Amino acid sequence: MAGNLHLPVVDLASPDLRAAAESIRQACVEHGFFYVTNHGVDRGLLEAVFAQSKGFFDLPMEEKMTLLRSANHRGYTPPYAEKLDASSQFVGDLKESFYIGPIDDGDMHNYINQWPSEECLPSWKETMKLYIAAVLDTGTRILSLIALGLDLDADFFHKIGALNCPSTFLRLLHYPGEVNESDSRNYGASAHSDYGVITLLVTDGTPGLQICREKDRNPQLWEDVHHIDGALIINIGDLLERWTNYVFRSTLHRVVAVGKERYSVAFFLDPNPDTLVQCLESCCSEACPPRFPPIKSGDCIVGRINSTYK
Prior knowledge:
This protein has 310 residues and is α+β, with helices and mostly antiparallel strands. Helix content is 27%, strand content 22%.
């Protein structure tokens, strides 16, 4: 069952930063998802990313498998390799994907990424690097507004070192159109919440993304997230939920098969792995003490990622 959903739309070009921050705070409390417009990512670049993504996923399986996901979670993940909902009766989700980790020419992370050959896809690597730089800038602006919405300084995440070599991952995703009869009730991506702080998502407009705002409701109510041309979809993850002592709530989401191929691009913006995540002062009090002990960001996220793979 899917209901109608109207998520907040935040204009990142608004001169009223406090109003934008309050809109984001309300969205994070009530929905865990929102849209942003005027985000600064060029439409032509978005189109190029989707074209390059399709070019890779159109390659023969044996060629894609030469870039199989490494132990450092870089590279290609074939269909059924990931199971986001441990209770799913299926061996794995339908989607295939490609992970690209942090990009920094002066940092070792750049050398453990995997890339398709330039002979095969000559513009692929440069297109992805340009997109990562653009969407990282957008994500940093959103984190500043999140900080303001939490009664913190706009540069809070900078000051604590969270954005000093942040843990960033770009994930290209392809969902199949037609599926086998045995997969008729399987999901492109089964129900899950994201592990980190924020995710910036862009889709090709094909439907399928749904959210469930009440995790513990039975039966669950799933609502369709509609496409807004030119907007990015933002959602918060479990680490930000933990950081805010459940003031913000991460939201279950999934992708259902709709009988049509679907492409999307997710950018995960998380803190430097050594960042200590502990309850923010504005989110706890004597009446509402911290629910979680402090933990390093990297320890929390890596544990979650490792549990996702067989």
